[in-house]
Amino acid sequence: MNDKAILSVTGLRARVAEEDLDILRGVDLNIRPGETHAIMGPNGSGKSTLAKVVAGHPAYQVTAGSVAFQGEDLLEMEPDERSQAGIFMAFQYPIAIPGVSIANFLRTALQARLGDDEELDLFDFQELLMERMELLDMDPSFAQRPINDGFSGGEKKRNEILQMSVLKPALALMDETDSGLDIDALKIVAHGVNTLREENPDMSVLLITHYQRILNHVIPDVVHVMYRGRIVESGGPEVAMELEARGYEEYRIAHAV
Amino acid sequence: MPSNEVIQGLGLDDYKFGFVTDSEPVFRTRPGLDADIVRQISGRKDEPAWMLARRLKALKIYESKPMPEWGGDLSELQETLDQTYFYVKPQEQMERSWDDVPENIKLTFERLGIPEAERKILAGVGAQYDSEMVYHSLKEEWEAKGVIFDSIEDGLKNHPELFRKYFGTVIPAADNKFAALNSAVWSGGSFVYIPPGVQLETPLQAYFRVNQERLGQFERTLIIADEGSRAHYIEGCTAPIYSTDSFHSGVIEIVVKKDAYFRYTTIQNWSNNMYNLVTQRALVHRGAHMEWLDGNLGSKLTMKYPSCYLMEEGAHGDILSIAYAGDGQHQDTGGKVIHVAPNTSSSIVSKSISKGTGRSSYRGLCKVYDGATNAKSNVECDALLINETSRTDTFPYIEIDERSASVGHEATVSKVGDEQLFYLMSRGMDEAEAMALIVRGFIEPIAKELPLEYAVELNRLIELEMEGSVG
Ligand SMILES: Nc1ncnc2c1ncn2[C@@H]1O[C@H](COP(=O)(O)OP(=O)(O)OP(=O)(O)O)[C@@H](O)[C@H]1O
Ligand SMILES: [Mg+2]
Q1: For residue B274, what pLDDT is reported?
Q2: Nearest in space to B216 (alpha carbons), one of B247, B185, B241
């Protein structure tokens, strides 16, 4: 346990509820306020599962270990409570909600944070939304489109970051946000994330990626390698460079079953 | 985490409008139905002899027709009918201004949660309280244009020739058992006539309410949109809950003449022990356009299939339907389009939501007669299931006797998915809010066609319903 951590994951084991094999097989991870951590690792190694368990996805069952967020036991909280406490996950595969516009969706999400006693100021909301769309170089008319419905891959990813920039989390889990973005879009999204980090220097980021390139724009403090449900190596940005050159072969040998 | 009992204590599953205001009816017939009761109804209304004769003939047809075997479960209906008061007259006078409306009736409106806003709209509205119009005033503008917006009774009294020319021509008594029943005992409803070329911007609205235990409400509405006219009629209603089954069987007849446009919007939210069996049909003439926008919530069983008979060249019909079936409810709804003439076109869009043990059925008919060349029809029905126990089915009947017709049918069933719920909850909405947002998105293509105040009311109802759905 690290007292100063905003997110503290200890010995975490988790599986798909009702299955017998753990996907996460003892994950330890500490992120301090303001830090950016990257997680890399081969397909199927458990990166998304880790993010989803932290966000509270009901499909997964935690079989051992603990997750604390700002000192509170996260595993006791519902996904909406975790969100309201300051966790945001940008999905690897955002899902469509037909008939619900981005604007309506975000308004409902912000209203939910205020509770029943307080009414969201629609003027302020509109202003914030437009400012954020501008930051991410999105056309204002996009706010009226039903969320993720018929969006291109890149549009979905950008929309995730739009939501993040409106909800202003304390901890952002970004699951392969860079996959599917074109070269310009990658820079715009990275700029968006960096702007949020500047606005709130205490904001922490856990960035899951397969490619070193995004780390040139969103510079990580720590890079982790996840392999078969565990974090098997942690280091500075150079880890990502080495992986890019060498791939995961050495882990395959070192962690053979 | 609140316990189950606490949640139940909040009364979220209680029917929102489940109250009864204390209004002594002035007159009512004894329970059950025979020729003598039909004579009493007609006599009370001071009707001309031809109408009494029609009613008695309709009664014979009703008695001769068997209960329908299709649609929903009607096996307990006869018992309900035997105990039904077929006519209740709540008060003697037709009201003209809001001030004249009795206090307890105002209270009813107030408890519906619509007083101030709706009151303004009510300035041009016929509101039906029990079987009779109690409040009915017509905007001067409409009067000046020659628009008739009366109670059905006044329509018969004040415009006998117009009335007789069209009454029962769209839906004859022999059409089906419940149309026959309505034709025998009808009471209350609207009579609307839009003169040629008259275009109304503001919708004509009627607010309905059934407030008498075991009262069968047999509203009858007759609308004629004359050539080149344009208008929108809205009828919304909610009913209080009762311990015994109630029964509602309306007949809505609409004639849309050459090049006219007419839209009829209904949002019905009956209490969950109500049988709601309604026949509504429009005859659409040359180049005319009819739209039904039909929302069905509540009731024990609703069987309702708004229909467009496209009688002449270039006629167009649209049917938009939303059904919500909560626990123990069955919504058997849909639409019918009958293409009789060439170059006619139609579309049906139906959206249903089933929650808990609720069941929604789409039942539709698309018929194209031989000679209706180049007829085009498109049907889209989407069902959303909230729980594992929820149920939906589709019965699309397609009968095409014309080779050049083009008919499309598309049906989808979706479940509120865990991934969708998680996505919304990960943005901070609780489960009920997330569910309500998904449902609202699902019906959005139809809800956006509603006037704002109805869309708001519909959203509020859905929110209340979803609060009860989270286990
Ligand atoms: N809901 C689920 N049902 C069944 N299997 C699952 C589920 N979630 C994850 N898994 C399995 O767990 C393993 C880890 O999946 P996860 O999505 O976490 O991998 P990942 O590291 O994010 O991979 P990628 O780089 O391809 O996104 C995979 O073998 C996957 O098939
Ligand atoms: Mg993944």
Answers
A1: 84
A2: B247
| Extents of the domains making up chain B | 10-304, 422-471
The domain locations on chain A are 7-96+169-254
Structure letter (DSSP) for residue B224: E
Instruction: Summarize pLDDT for B293-334 with one digit per residue, the tens.
Output: 999 988 899 999 999 999 999 999 999 999 999 999 999 999
Residue A228 C-alpha from the chain's centroid:
20
B280: helix, strand or coil? strand
Neighbours of ion ligand 2 (CB under 5 A): A 48, 92
Report pLDDT digits (tens) over B268-280: 877 778 889 999 9
Quick one: pLDDT band at residue B353, thresholds 50, 70, 90? very high
- The contact set of A with B (CB < 8 A) is 55-59, 78-80, 82-84, 88-89, 91, 94-95, 97-100, 104-105, 108-109, 112-113, 146, 163, 167
Tens of each residue's pLDDT in chain A, 257 residues:
445 899 999 999 999 988 999 999 999 999 999 999 999 999 999 999 999 999 999 999 999 999 999 999 999 999 999 999 999 999 999 999 999 999 999 999 999 999 878 888 888 999 999 999 999 999 999 999 999 999 999 999 999 999 999 999 999 999 999 999 999 999 999 999 999 999 999 999 999 999 999 999 999 999 999 999 999 999 999 999 999 888 898 888 887 76
Which of chain A's residues have a Cβ under 8 Å away from the Cβ of B430? 78, 80, 112
A8 C-alpha to ligand 2 centroid (Å): 21
| Torsion angles phi and psi, residue B258, rounded to 5 | -45, 130
Residue environment code for B348-383, b if the CB has 16+ CB neighbours within 10 A, otherwise e: bbbbbbbbbebbbbbbbbbbbbeebbebbbbbebbb
Q: Percent helix, strand, coil in chain B (nearest 5)?
A: 30, 35, 35
Q: In residues, how long is chain A?
A: 257
Tell me if A221 sits within 8 A of A36, measured CB to CB: yes
Report the topology of domain A7-96+169-254.
Rossmann fold (3.40.50)
A160/A185 Cα distance (integer angstroms) = 13
Residue minimizing CA distance to atom 24 of ligand 1: A43
Distance (angstroms) between ligand 1 centre and the Cα of B434 equals: 25
Tell the residue number behind the tokens 């920039």, with chain if given. A165
The answer to whether residues B170 and B201 touch, using CB atoms and an 8 Å cutoff, is no
User: Over 50: is that where the pLDDT of B127 sits?
Assistant: no
Q: In whole angstroms, give the CA distance from residue A158 to residue A150.
A: 14
pLDDT in tens, B238-253: 544 444 557 888 999 9
Cβ atoms B206, B126 nearer than 8 A = yes
Nearest CA to ligand 1 atom 3: A16
Half-sphere exposure of B185 (CA within 13 A, CB side): 33
